[in-house]
Design brief:
Main location: membrane
Structural class: alpha+beta
Helix content: 55-70%
Mean pLDDT: 91
Membrane topology: Peripheral membrane protein
Shape: elongated
Oligomer: single chain
Protein name: ATP synthase subunit delta
Subcellular location: Cell membrane; Membrane
Number of strands: 4
Low-confidence stretches: none
Largest sheet: 4 strands, mixed
CATH class of the largest domain: Mainly Alpha
Number of domains: 2
Order of helices and strands: HHHHHHEHEEEH
InterPro entries: ATP_synth_OSCP/delta_N_sf (IPR026015), ATPase_OSCP/dsu (IPR000711)
CATH topology of the largest domain: Peroxidase, domain 1
Number of helices: 8
CATH superfamily of the largest domain: N-terminal domain of the delta subunit of the F1F0-ATP synthase
């Protein structure tokens, strides 16, 4: 499944780069993703009993203000019976666009919600740490970590939580007696 989504994403990304309109593609793919996020629309486009011409007409109406090349991608995925992989394709395209721009994405867990200043400081620190110009953060709160930050950037895990530091201290004390 992911291989097909990846092929479409790669082709779309190369085309967007070649035409030098990555921003427009991202905006229009987001709009298409919103339309296709409706289970009724997706079901209609994936239904084998509905003629392709009817589906393509529907896409044309639902996505009339989306760039023709983006619409053609949706048309192609529909005709090839791959439209259910659109969300995967869109996610992969966004990751490729971020990579191209030097942007990394991070999942950040904190014990309490972040304010803007702290969020910005964490994003800047992570960007320096992973060698990127910018880090976009998606955040969640987990009181179990007690304090600090746990961040996942790509396949790197940065654990600066108080819970982990306390565990390390406890383990260290258990290993050797303190005089």
């Amino acid at each position: 499944m992911a291989a097909t989504g990846r092929r479409y994403a790669q082709a779309a990304f190369e085309l967007a780069k070649e035409k030098n309109n990555l921003d427009r593609w991202e905006k229009d793919l987001a709009q298409a993703a919103e339309v296709l996020g409706d289970s009724d629309v997706l079901g209609f486009l994936d239904a084998p009993q509905v003629a392709d011409s009817v589906k393509l007409d529907g896409i044309s109406k639902l996505m009339s203000d989306v760039d023709v090349l983006v619409r053609n991608t949706v048309n192609l995925m529909t005709v090839n019976r791959d439209i259910t992989k659109f969300a995967d394709m869109y996610r992969l395209f966004s990751e490729m666009a971020d990579e191209h721009r030097g942007i990394a994405r991070a999942e950040v867990v904190t014990a309490v919600p972040l304010d803007d200043a702290r969020r910005s400081k964490i994003a800047d620190g992570l960007a320096k740490l992973v060698g990127r110009t910018e880090v976009k953060i998606s955040e969640s709160v987990d009181p179990e970590i007690i304090g600090g930050v746990v961040a996942k950037v790509g396949d790197r895990l940065i654990d600066g939580s108080t819970r982990t530091q306390l565990r390390a201290m406890r383990d260290s004390l258990a290993e050797r007696p303190v005089d």
